[in-house]
Structures are given as C-alpha cells and as structure tokens.
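Feature request, filed as a ticket because there's no other form

It would be nice if the structure record came with a short human-readable summary line next to the tokens. Right now we just get the raw output. Example of a typical job, pasted below so the devs can see what we mean:
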Amino acid sequence: MVDTPLLQLESITKRYGSLVANDGVGFDLGRGEVMGILGENGAGKSTLMNVISGLIRPDEGSMRLDGRPVAFSSPREAAEAGIGMVHQHFKLVGALTVAENLALGDPRWGRRAVLRFDELKAAVSAIAQRLGIEVDFDARVDRLTVGQQQRVEIMKVLSRKPRLLILDEPTAVLSQEERPALFRMVAELAAQGTSVIIISHKLEDILDSCRRVVVMRHGKVVSTSEVGGKSRDDLIRLLVGDDMPVLRPKGASDEEGQCLLKARGLTARRPNGTVALHEVDFDLRRGEILALCGVEGNGQSELVQVVAGLLEPDEGRLDYWFGGHGGRYPDAAVLRRAGVCHIPEDRLRDGVLADASLTDNFLLTHLDNARFNRSGWLQPEQVEAAVGEAVSAYAVKTPGLHAAMSQLSGGNQQKLVLARELASDPSMIVAAHPTRGLDVKTIAFINNQLLARRASGAGVLLASADLAEVWQIADRIMVLSAGRLHGPVPVAQTTIQEVGRWMTQR
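Raw output as currently delivered:
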C-alpha cells in the first residue's frame, strides 16, 4: 500500500452537450507529492478538479483512492474521504461571519445553536499563525476583500486536515509578501504526507512548489513531466506551443495628455468605520494606462468603486471631462452613458449573471443602445449578431450564444465581459484585476486590448497586483498603503523594489 499512489485517474470524461470538458484524462498522484496542473482557460482543469472533489460526476472513467475504487456523489463524501478543495470562486455565505462560515457544514464544531466557537477559533488560529495571516472571526464575509475571503476558504479546508488538498489559483489574490507563507505551508503539508494539487496560471507557483506538472489542452492531458530543471519559457512552450501572442509595444497614443479625471482629497470609510481612502489625489489622462497597486485590502477596491460611480466618497471631489463637461459624483449609470466602462474585480459577483445566457449577459450594459432597443422593444437578431461578433473577435469558447455563462471557463467569461465593456468604445476604462486567474495566452490577449484602447486615446485605470505585468503595459503607477496614496509616478522613473517599499509603508 505504501507504493500505491494516493490518487489514480483513468479515462475521466465529462461532456456538456457538444462540449467535451474532459476527454479521457488520466494520471497518478503520489503520497506527499505536490503536483501542478497547467492549461489554457477552457482546457478542462476546473472540471477535472470538480470531479475529484465530488462536485460533479464523470460520464466515463474511474478514480481510485489508496488503490480502492471511489465514486463520490457529493463534496461531503469527498471531504470525509480526505479530499479538500479551495475553489477559485469562493463558496462562502456573505451574510454570515467568518466564524459562522468556518463552522458551516462541519459537525466537529457542534450543530445548530450549540456551536463550539472557542474550539473552532483555537484550531483555525493555530493554522493562521503558521500561514502568517490574521483572521477576524467576527467580521461579516461580504465586508471582506477578495483576498481576505480566499483566506477564509483556505482556513476552512485546512481545518479538516485533508489527505489531498486541491488549490485552484491559490495566489491569485495574495500579495507577494503572503505568497511564500502559503507555499511554506504547502511544503510542510507535503512533508507530513498530504498530497497537494495546485492549479495556477502563475508559472512561478508551479516552478517554486511542484515536483511534477500536468499540462492539459482541449480537455486532454498532453504532457506529464518533472518540474526540476524547467524554466518559465519551458512551461509556456508546454502550455501553448508556439501560438503565443506578442505583447504590443506601448508607443505613443493618438490623443495623449488631456485630463479625463481629476480626484482631489478623496476620503472614504468602510461599513465598519475604518478609513479606506485618506485624502487621495490623482489625475487620469487620455492615452495612458495608470496602474493602481497595493497589498489587498489597502483601499484599492474602494477607489475603483468611487471612480466607477458605485461608492460616493465621504469627502473630496471627483471631476470627469467628457466632451468638455465636468461633474461631481455622478452615479454609475450616468458615467456609463458618458463613456466610462467598468471591468469588476470579481466577475461572478459583480460582472455576470451565471445562470443567464451569453446574450442576456451582453445586454446588461447595453439595454439603452439604439441598435438593440427600439422604442422599448428589444431586437433579438441584432443582439445575437453583436454577441456573435464578440465571441468571434475575442475567441470565446462556448457551446452556443444561448448557453449559460456558468458553462464557460473563467477565462472565457472574462473575455466576454471585456468584449461587452469595450463594445461601447469607452473614453475611460476602469479595469480591476482584469487578468487575475487567467492563462498566459489570455493575459496577453487582454493586455493587448487595453494597449489598443490606450493607443486610440482612451484613459485606463488598471488595478493590478502583478507588478511584472504593470511594468509591461502601464505608463504611470500609484500605490495605496493603509488608504494613503504614493505617486502617481512614471513607471520609467521608479523600480519594482521602490514600489514594493511603498506597498509596505503605513
């Protein structure tokens, strides 16, 4: 039994209509092994992990755990067998506190009104201390940042002491400072015999933590190899072959320098009364990409919401110039009509309706468009034509235009959101982490779209946690730390090390 792999997959196949998400997938995972799964968005990685963790059942194929056949009918069965998964899109209840979410569905902490929160907090605090993070057990989950919510998910799964831990994009919302602590925990778990599968589009995650890597394309495993001795370029070649788009040079835009947005003295508080923004000043110009960086939870989300018209600041002033007109605190609908689009940081929560079709999702921000709406009557043929154009232009992989958004991979959902937002030819683009959790090919595609809009004179406010990406496409950079702004400064006049120091200042 010692030499038997912990997990064995054979010919796993899963279909959704005409779309084959997994096509005869098979591999083994050793005890205490850390394995990476790479693949473009839509390659079938998440579907496969959902099979392993009991969320869905395969149409064909078999799975063995400890050499014994298993067929899970629910995540609870998988959890009881020792399999835990931290999903890219969180499975939390926003109206409950952190402690209540951690206790939810876990009989170890009692049932109904008799819950042993003291024991739960002690157990989770010990794990959090090893990870080097803080947990506010009394905070409501819907008031946490995306990064904080992911940490709650990690704590929830690790508290069950799984034999197999699946991490889906575990560093997508973590800062560079938090990342080493997470992988130290992964190494410690592996040393104790826990097997770990890591799905990540950050190639450094695979290089830094995994012994082997499985590469998937179009639902099939095309390569299984040792990570040792491989470089980032080696992984990219395994992932996309030679079909890798080249990032367009920044160059000069056609309409550079005119002010689109002037922010002065912006101060905003969170629902719990803490200060998210403190006297923030900056300008956004035509023909530039202005990057907004910082460790998660330092005010970036609130600033994006303020600029997009979703959150009115407590103090300060915002002036927008579109066609020579300025205004103070217009709401999101007014800004959209004036030429502002918004790509939200959490597409499932704020960007799409998962159970609605692609056409309905495309219409969400175009209901007033004269092409689709004539005197209050929708024009279905025009809508389908526009969505078909978007699907073709942005290479969105989908079973059909009337398929539910939930049937698309995360990257294809993101491409449709991008196509929808850019379809109105906006003057100003507010993009919050538009490439988070996407594969290298899709990242290059999206960044090329932003560079093209910049070249045509649009202004782009880009919130990003990826400094390497910022250095490739941004003109200026500013950093929020504890709600205070450093910069903006031209990217060419600073360094990643200097920006890193700003991110840790208080």
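Something like this underneath would help us a lot:
Residues 440-455 form the longest helix (16 residues).
The CA atoms of residues 54 and 77 lie 7 Å apart.
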